[in-house]
# Entry
Amino acid sequence: MGVRKLQAAETESALLEAARRLFAERGYLNTKITDITGTAGRATGSFYQHFDSKEALLQALGADLYTQGSEAFAAEGAGQPHDLTDPVQLRQHLAVGWQVMRENRAVVAALFEAAVASGPASGALWEQMTSGTTMFREHLEYLRDQGHELPGDPELVAAAMGGLMSMLAYTLPPDYSADAVIDTLTALLLYGLAGPARP
# Structure
């Protein structure tokens, strides 16, 4: 890689990292491009050599988040259709999703803030929710195709699962252990409020 390409890659990386840090501290809506460039130690003009807007930078962070999620699911073998009615498999999927969301909490929050700010009529929040829960939807469609009765449309159920997880990742204080959260989500999604079936 040439010197200019290396410098450009370093600048882009510094801008993305500064944005992550500032979004975690101030939130997406309260962060300006000049805040990002100042924190990154770069000139404001350099921002526009890499991103057209703050929204474009957020899209890059979101794409990275989804790539991390896909890679984490693949590493756990979760990319193949699984039976989410099996407590072990459901817990495995939730654990992978939870880990990625918590490690990228600032990006999850920024995506949520940006979608909410665009207003309900834009459909941005629904688009974000459905595109971010494709893995769950595919597994639920697999179950439906195997004759398993689902509580609703796979897209809606997957979005509900993702909404529950993303709001917890956004709001939950750090003193909750990951195991406690994942175990609670697993039990809630598997058994609902009726509790486990009794013999």
Remarks:
- Residues 53-193 form a domain with the Tetracycline Repressor; domain 2 fold (CATH 1.10.357.10).
- Residues 3-26 form the longest helix (24 residues).
- Residues 161 and 189 are 8 Å apart (CA to CA).
